[in-house]
Amino acid sequence: MAQTTHPSGTGAPTAPGGEGSSRRDFLYLATGAVGAVGVASAAWPFIDSMNPAADTLALASIEVDLAPVAEGQSITVTWRGKPIFVRHRTAKEIDEAKTVTISDLRDPQADDKRVQKPEWLILIGICTHLGCVPLGQKPTDPRGDFDGWFCPCHGSHYDSSGRIRKGPAPLNLAVPPYAFLNDSRIKLG
What we know:
- The protein is of the alpha+beta class.
- 24% of the residues lie in helices and 23% in strands.
- The protein contains three helices and nine strands.
- It has helices at 19-48, 54-60, 91-98; strands spanning 62-65, 74-79, 82-88, 120-124, 147-151, 156-159, 164-166, 178-182, 185-188.
- The strands form three sheets. A three-stranded antiparallel β-sheet has the order 1-9-8. It has a three-stranded antiparallel β-sheet with strand order 2-3-4, with no helix packed on it. A three-stranded antiparallel β-sheet has the order 5-6-7.
- A hairpin with a 4-residue loop joins strand 5 and strand 6 (156-159).
- The mean pLDDT is 88.
């Protein structure tokens, strides 16, 4: 029987650890690496598309300048499509909010748990009954029986801390996440 011999490095079987084996291992590793890079390159656009859009990120947080809001005034800003009530409370409104007997409230919450600074009340201006926007932001608006906000749709009355006091709404006006950046500027979100 005649035996054939192949020159080394031409793909011919060789003994383990020979030159043909190391070349084949290198080709396997190189092919695997190129394949992994190709799969990652193809998958990246799909993974990246799961990130929020730039316009969504821009609305995630906003800064509000409080300096132009005089004592007793309110402004409404929009954050994430919701009206945010910012009220610069007077000393009378702060006293009214603090002197309430907490156990008498439908949704008991002390005023100091709803504000970071007593003079600034920040609320999501959506009635907790059916999602209406209560009145009380304009000086000519009715402010209800408790000097806060009034929802005329079904008669919910909120006090000067945004707590439900009368009517069908089950909960207080919500307080959004915010932080004071300095004495006259807040960041919502």
